[in-house]
Write a structure and sequence with these properties.
- 2 copies of one chain form a homodimer.
- The first copy, chain A, is α/β, with parallel strands linked by helices.
- Chain A folds into 2 domains: 258 residues, nicotinate phosphoribosyltransferase (Alpha-Beta Barrel); 173 residues, Aldolase class I (TIM Barrel, Alpha-Beta Barrel).
- In chain A, 36% of the residues lie in helices and 18% in strands.
- Chain A contains 16 helices and 19 strands.
- The first copy, chain A, has a 7-stranded antiparallel sheet. Chain A has a 6-stranded parallel sheet with strand order 7-6-11-10-9-8. In chain A, strands 16-14-15-19 form a 4-stranded mixed sheet.
- In chain A, β12 and β13 form a beta hairpin.
- The radius of gyration of chain A is 26 Å and the shape is globular.
- The two termini of chain A are 40 Å apart.
- Chains A and B meet through α1, α2, α6, α7 and α8 of A and α1, α2, α6, α7 and α8 of B.
- Chains A, B: One of its GO terms (cellular component) is cytosol.
């Protein structure tokens, strides 16, 4: 335990402390495995048991940060000392702590590329490594993949609802802490947003940073028009004005006085659908047909679809809270389960039998079948060595601890999502999820499960 | 924009990059203020407009990380260069960027101590500084305070529902990214949890790290009892066994064979209320009355209250997803609004007039009145210089950029919450929020608002 130095703590993560950015039981279990010489080659798969409510598909995201973590995990002396002194470890031998000091991940990692459309029970990541190496990474891996996948999926729904109009991530202030804001910006961009208000994410990832102006700017002035002029003065090519501080219609009329260089206006309160039509008319009548209207104010995919159905004149949507917290379904229940072990040269499939939480055993692959028009038709979850006339979604990412995969840029991933979403038939994109995409398991996988259940395979 | 080096990116925050961990418009606005010489002494207040659904109170949290940020914010040459090269800043003078290189926060900060019970519209933080200094910190401040306050409040409900039984944070894997896991662990502990599974949070903050064992441990063995024995072997004083991997009742019976040194068992699936009673009997009949039963599996305050009402024999609850995402209401709408400026020596109150989003002007204080038994009776939000026979909740934290407040440990904050919750009458703790705590605004504050609305004060 660190002593209280009276200095406020940052609670930042870094490459040194991620080794203990995990659940205690991962560390006690690996100590237990070590002490009992249990370190068989083991395979774990990360998947989502059931699609969350109101989701008919997921967009896989977060692999880049997962790989960063796995490629860099190590235990410096400082952290080993901390663990050694925890009472729970008092019966654990020094050998274990020496092992930790030399620890690095030397296993294999397979994953679906970021931006892949996935469904329930489909492995997003497959890890084959010594039991200890595979176990230790569980919690961090889940926390990265669960969140980014949740948000990329939500963003793709919002972008779908916006039907060709632009969507911008404005969510940083409501994300679950500062790092969540950055991760959300990444996932939203992957899901199809055109940019983010988060400058750090923009810089790190090459996402366009986008912003307008806040009410405090307008309120810092006695006069609304003076505030507009002064803003235009400093940002002549980026004059997007917030016009609802006092009265949206009056604000719109004042904004037109900026003239042809006005780039856009933002509506942030009131009946935005109605106001957008009136503001559009005011702009058009002033000869400012090129001026864009941005809307914000607790938007989500449902509201956006409704606004557009009612003929709202909106060119871009600034979406925050609802997108970066995935507010209608704010957690993704990804799990990471042991599916196979090699014991004395023998491959032993593993599965959890408890009724509600049964898992599929063995190393698996997702086989995706396309129809004649190249659209997604159905998936089969099968064993890795099956041969189907289908796309195989899991690809090698790391071999023996080394990266064997070219990490794409977020721009490339966004393109992948665009392409994939165009191949997902429209009925599966319905915001109310009326139709489930067909996913079955292969005959061979079924057989393995039957053998385990009937006791023909020890597990 | 950073070039893609092909190296996977961590997306960690640190003391250098927090300066741009903000919304772009904060940076454009401060550039605008700078260029127009607008840098009056200004006061902003951070508050929550409406309590979220299903919440009748909030527990303020996150001040320590907010203070860390404010005390350390600076712009290194690297970040100034990045901003300078953004096209949006092309008309901004070099003087502004020189100003940024010398930037530090030199203002005053008032806040309610972490662990304070607060309600809608009550200022949690009040910042008085130059307009630029006060503006630049908005987004980061909100992202810290919104999340930790959301989670401390949720945790306090879960702890209330557990009615004296222990609650442990198990949520890291479902929190919104790795840092959210650490921040959640802190907020949950503040809210009354006895510990966390998050080892990094435990180390940084001195919170007890708590863990049992996962299904993968049991599944790594062919034989369930052998897995129990081996675990006990390495952790003789911390043997808490997960007994539901195959069959909870059989698992419980096997666990009793460990004998008197068995510390606890964990139930993670099935009808936990029913199973807990049967398991309790099995343990008691084996003479293991001291062995504790822990329950987990998507628990929340509603389920816990229901389980206990039905007589569940549970000593501690491991709560994850629902607590760390505040799943029933996953975002807190904290805002940060300009309330006052000093212009040429004259104090000018500021308020936003738009109907739905009206704000209260002027520097404010929360006055909390106690009844004869020392319980919370009502709050009045008033001007800072009013005199009431009441507790004044906002306290000085920083003056002229220097910390003037002793940052408490999380243990101390937890004690504060305990004391405060004991002073909040029980009717306001009802999980279904049937009664609203009385909060009004003072006559003097009302007068200021009336004067502004009638145009007697320029604003």
């Amino acid at each position: 335990m660190k002593k209280n130095t009276g200095k406020p703590k940052s609670l930042f993560l870094d490459d040194a402390n991620t080794c203990i950015s995990t659940d205690l039981y991962q560390l006690t279990m690996i100590a237990g495995y070590f002490e009992h010489g249990i370190n068989h080659k083991s395979t774990f798969e990360l998947f989502v048991r059931d699609l969350p409510e109101r989701r008919s598909y997921l967009i896989a995201a977060g692999l880049e940060q997962a790989v960063h973590y796995i490629a860099n995990i190590s235990f410096t002396a400082e952290y080993v000392k901390y663990l050694k002194e925890l009472p729970v470890f008092k019966n654990v031998s020094n050998k274990f702590f020496n092992y930790l000091e030399d620890f690095s991940f030397k296993g294999d990692l397979y994953a679906v590329p970021e931006g892949t459309v996935i469904f329930a029970n489909e492995p997003i990541i497959r890890v084959t490594a010594s039991m200890i190496e595979a176990q230790i990474i569980e919690t961090y891996l889940l926390s990265i993949i669960n969140y980014q996948t949740l948000i990329a999926s939500k963003a793709s729904r919002v972008v779908f609802a916006a039907d060709g109009r632009k969507v911008i991530d404005f969510g940083t202030r409501r994300a679950h802490g500062p790092q969540a804001g950055v991760l959300a910006a990444r996932a939203c961009y992957i899901g199809g947003c055109v940019g983010t208000s988060n400058v750090l994410a923009a810089r790190e990832l090459g996402i366009p940073p986008i912003g307008t102006v806040a009410h405090s700017w307008i309120m810092a002035y006695g006069d609304e028009y003076e505030s507009f002029q002064d803003f235009h003065n400093v940002f002549p090519d980026n004059t997007v004005l917030l016009i609802d501080t006092y009265d949206t219609i009056k604000g719109a009329k004042l904004a037109t006085k900026i003239g042809m260089k006005l780039k856009g206006v933002r509506l942030d309160s009131g009946n935005i659908t109605l106001l957008s039509k009136r503001v559009r008319r005011i702009l058009d009548e002033a000869g400012l047909g090129h001026v864009k209207i941005t809307a914000s104010s607790d938007l989500n995919e449902y509201k956006i679809a409704q606004m557009l159905a009612k003929g709202a004149c909106i060119d871009s949507f600034g979406v925050g809270t609802e997108m970066v917290t995935s507010k209608d379904t704010p957690a993704l229940g990804g799990v990471y389960k042991l599916v196979e072990q090699e014991i004395k040269g023998k491959v032993v499939p593993k599965m959890k039998l408890s009724k509600e939480k049964e898992t599929y055993p063995s190393k698996k692959q997702i086989y995706r079948f396309l129809n004649k028009r190249g659209l997604y038709k159905k998936d089969i979850i099968g064993l890795v060595d099956e041969e189907f006339d289908a796309e195989e979604l899991l690809q090698p990412i790391m071999k023996k601890g080394k990266l064997v995969y070219k990490i794409p840029t977020v721009k490339q991933i966004q393109k992948t999502v665009e392409k994939n979403m165009s191949r997902l038939p429209k009925k599966f994109k319905d915001l109310n999820c009326k139709t489930a995409y067909p996913v079955t398991i292969s005959r061979r996988l079924k057989k393995v499960m039957e053998k385990i259940k009937s006791g023909h395979i020890a597990f």
